[in-house]
Amino acid sequence: MTDEEIQELQIRIAELEWFHSIDLGCGLVTPGSDESPAKLARLGLPDDLVGRSVLDIGAYDGFFSFEAERRGADRVLAVDTLAWERGATSGWPCFSLAHRVLSSAVEARKVDIHSLASAEIGSFDVVLCLGVLYHLRDPLSALEAVADVTGDLLVLETHTDATHLRRPAMVFYEGDELAGDASNWSGPNERMLATWLREVGFRDVEVVHRRSIGHRALRAFYRAGLRLDRFPGLFDQGRIVVHARK
Ligand SMILES: C[S@@+](CC[C@H](N)C(=O)[O-])C[C@H]1O[C@@H](n2cnc3c(N)ncnc32)[C@H](O)[C@@H]1O
């Protein structure tokens, strides 16, 4: 790329609102608001994906799709809905720009998670479902569709709640109760997630990462501020990465 092309790219990057920090090469990394590289480190994603197919559900700007491609995956399909329909400065424009600059062969389709069907898109060796489940009002039916398109490994990353309960349970958020975002609905606990995953046909369900008690306590303390009555509810919330195999 010439200096002039890099300058033009810098201007275009600055015009967009990025969720992911994507290394575009040529010394440019998109200014994402999320901690995508730290999330990647927690996923336990195989370093080598040569010969494997990968489906990235809720791909947003495409960080994890492009990473799967970088790790050698034969076929990568990125799907999304909300973030790709939102507007002219976030989501789809970001994905498209990164796709072009990286000369990526990642395929992209606007498909709702509930509509995923192996009869239409095939099944994938590795399925990524990262940060999506808590946006759903009916996570179990979505997981049924996810199971249908999973050939081998599902990597599921999501928000959790009701941690102190020893039985499968889920918190359902009204309005923008969770993090001030009205698109957040569901906070299952670890047992609920494992039960759902077995229910839709996964035999091995392994938690590969969960937020430590210390992390949950610090986060809850920080978010509760002077409203100490909010501490127990916030302390119940966490984040988890699960590997599920059929
Ligand atoms: C918090 S972002 C996570 C993005 C990315 N997977 C990550 O972990 O960084 C949630 C993504 O899920 C997508 N999403 C929400 N509901 C969806 C649905 N019903 N079907 C497909 N994608 C959905 C949103 O559009 C958004 O891109």
Quickly list its features.
246 residues, Rossmann fold, two-stranded antiparallel sheet, 10 helices, binds S-adenosylmethionine
Task: Give structural notes.
By secondary structure, the protein is α/β, with parallel strands linked by helices. It has a single domain, classed as Vaccinia Virus protein VP39 (Rossmann fold, 3-Layer(aba) Sandwich), CATH 3.40.50.150. Helices cover 34% and strands 22% of the residues. The chain has ten helices and nine strands. The strands form two sheets. A seven-stranded mixed sheet has the order 3-2-1-4-5-9-8, sandwiched between helices. Strands 6-7 form a two-stranded antiparallel ribbon. Helix 7 (139-149) links the parallel strand 4 (124-130) and strand 5 (150-160). The model has no long low-confidence stretch (mean pLDDT 97). S-adenosylmethionine (SAM) is lined by residues 34, 36, 57-58, 60, 80-83, 112-113, 130-132, 135. S-adenosylmethionine (SAM) binds at residues 34, 36, 57-58, 60, 80-83, 112-113, 130-132, 135.
List the topology elements.
Blueprint: H1 3-15, H2 36-42, E1 53-57, H3 63-70, E2 75-80, H4 82-85, H5 92-101, E3 107-110, H6 118-121, E4 124-130, H7 139-149, E5 150-160, E6 170-172, E7 186-188, H8 190-199, E8 204-210, H9 213-224, H10 231-235, E9 238-245
Parallel strand pairs: 1-2, 1-4, 2-3, 4-5
Antiparallel strand pairs: 5-9, 6-7, 8-9
This protein binds S-adenosylmethionine.
Low-confidence stretches: none
Beta-strand percentage range? 15-25%
Oligomer: single chain
CATH architecture: 3-Layer(aba) Sandwich
**What is the CATH fold-level name?**
Rossmann fold
Strand line-up in the sheet with most strands: 3-2-1-4-5-9-8
DSSP helical segment count = 10
N-to-C order of helices and strands: HHEHEHHEHEHEEEHEHHE
**Count of structural domains:** 1
